[in-house]
Design brief:
The protein has 138 residues and is of the alpha+beta class. The chain is 42% helix and 18% strand. A four-stranded antiparallel beta sheet has the order 1-2-4-3.
Length: 138
């Protein structure tokens, strides 16, 4: 027993838990802050904007119902049917390129017929009614 106790005292205590797994990777708070700042500077945007060649690839047609006409008049919104695989960013870019307007908000929904309906609110400087007239909706 005396020998076992001596051997136990001679061995350094083993690290347990997180420190044992990380080892020397644990950083001091100052080092971590510096590392995070460097990483933020190197970080690239997640999605790169693709130039849109054909905007009507994403937009199918303008949706003309009584409700969509009311949205045009009251809330400065346009309603379109879009490609089901099109994202909000692609739809926004396509509309801005096609009609030369600035868009505040894009909301999408899939209807019961599995079509993507897009509700687009224009910036206050632009009129949805003007675009509706250009499209022949009003």
């Amino acid at each position: 027993m005396a020998e076992e106790e001596k051997q136990a005292k001679e061995k350094p205590a083993e690290k347990k838990g997180l420190l044992a797994r990380l080892g020397s990777k644990v950083m001091k708070p100052e080092e971590k802050a510096k590392h995070m700042e460097e990483a933020a500077q190197k970080k690239e945007p997640k999605t790169k904007e693709k130039p849109i060649k054909d905007p009507w690839k994403y937009l199918r047609f303008a949706h003309m119902t009584e409700k969509s006409i009311n949205l045009i008049e009251r809330e400065n919104k346009l309603v379109f049917m879009a490609d089901t695989k099109a994202t909000k960013h692609e739809i926004k870019a396509a509309l801005e390129k096609t009609f030369d307007v600035k868009i505040d908000e894009v909301k999408t929904m899939i209807d019961q017929k599995h079509r993507k309906k897009v509700f687009v609110r224009l910036a206050k400087e632009y009129s949805a009614a003007d675009i509706a007239v250009r499209l022949g909706m009003i």
